[in-house]
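User: Can you fold this complex?
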Amino acid sequence: MTRLLRAGDRGWLLELDGPGIAHGVAARIRESTWGNDLEDVVPASRTVLVTVRDGADVLRVGKALETLDGSASLVAGNSRVVEIPVRYDGADLDSLAASTGLSVEAIAELHSSADHVVAFFGFAPGFAYIDGNPAPLRVPRRDSPRATTAAGSVAIAGGQTVIYPGGTPGGWTIIGTTDFVAWDVSATPPARLDVGDTIRFVRA
Amino acid sequence: MSLIVEQPGLFTTLQDLGRPGYAHFGVTSSGAADRYAHIAANRAVGNPASAATLELTLGGLVASLEEGRWMSLTGARAPLSVDGETVSARAFWLPAGSTLSIGIPNDSMRSYLAVDGGFLAPPVLGSVSWDTLAAIGTPPLVAGQRVEVGAPSNGSATAEPERVSPATPLVNFRWGPRHNLFNQSDLALFVTHKWRVSTETNRVGVRLEGATLDSRAGSLPSEGAVVGSIQVPPSGQPIVFLADHPVTGGYPIIGVVAEAHLWQLAQATPGTGLRFMPVAG
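Assistant: Here's the predicted assembly.
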């Protein structure tokens, strides 16, 4: 069962009963007959935030969300696959190798052979949190974040991978570098990734 | 035709109604922190609500226009003069080449300066607004900069009622989505305590101080957050999200400020006491 929680004058937070379905539920919401009344549909790991443009629609949309069948069996996954070339040359590889007991080669092989999925966006425009970092590589964030990170730095923490856009602080373990540009405001849409995309990190 | 900036003031940015609809890409809506004052400034010179204004944080702008135009200043009541002569009207004619000088308001944070025709800049995702968190849009004004002004609107000007920030704002909010992660005594404390606006206040959010709230959750998997969300981090000091708020967050949101009352947070100066009043429906 899903749970519907109020999120302000114009919003609802739909809490889902399982992981991995938020992007599919968000797609169903956007495609619904009342999808045009919505301002934002924001899938995250266990929730979908829905806001309406006009506050007068909020109760009607809430009723529609209550009757939405978001069960996993009905939610079609996003079938798109995006390949991101990575050079496994990150500044934290050696310390990661020391803490995990794995060789640098084994780390690169583990990370690049796993299937990853874009979970949600946050932190900065087009900044994707990508699920699927394999269990042996699930290290916590660094105790003290770097004040700045280079564009294209590929970094891991817990079960996720991120690509830093450049110039932001960062507390994750940097394992590699990519030339893939995830965000371009002059492009339509500006984000080259979407929630639910399957990501393959390809050794470059 | 341009506005020529002699002194930009403490922090002056172009703002419009923002860029809603991109939250799923990690882009917040941004836009004027006090939307009512932004719209009122535009209406006073006959512009549509979507025209860009200058949002002045704690005043301080000195500038001139290449051609005479109607202008208006709303929001925080900053002292205003044209060529050294005090102007008391909120809508005024600025002759070509005359020096407009806006002082520092003492009652609240943000003033909005509109010009007939609106300020122009290249939009990013449909908006010129400077988003301080993502650093997109039109960067803050600097001395010597020229800001392009549009053709006169020919719209009819209307004066919106002026709003004055109360000494102790009473801020309407709705509980949720995560008030159930707090115990009853902390929920009671939240609505009975007189909170104080800390010095940590900007376009991203306003940190409150006074009492300490204890959520049972600590942190959650990140989830979407709306403007006005009252987030409670482990420190127990609530943060109210304003226009440039992060689109997702992992700390529990105890409630969300009513949109019609959000301006009170955007305008409250550090040290201001305020209370929260729950509303339903």
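Helices of chain A lie at 22-31, 58-67, 93-100, 104-113. Chain A has four helices and eleven strands.
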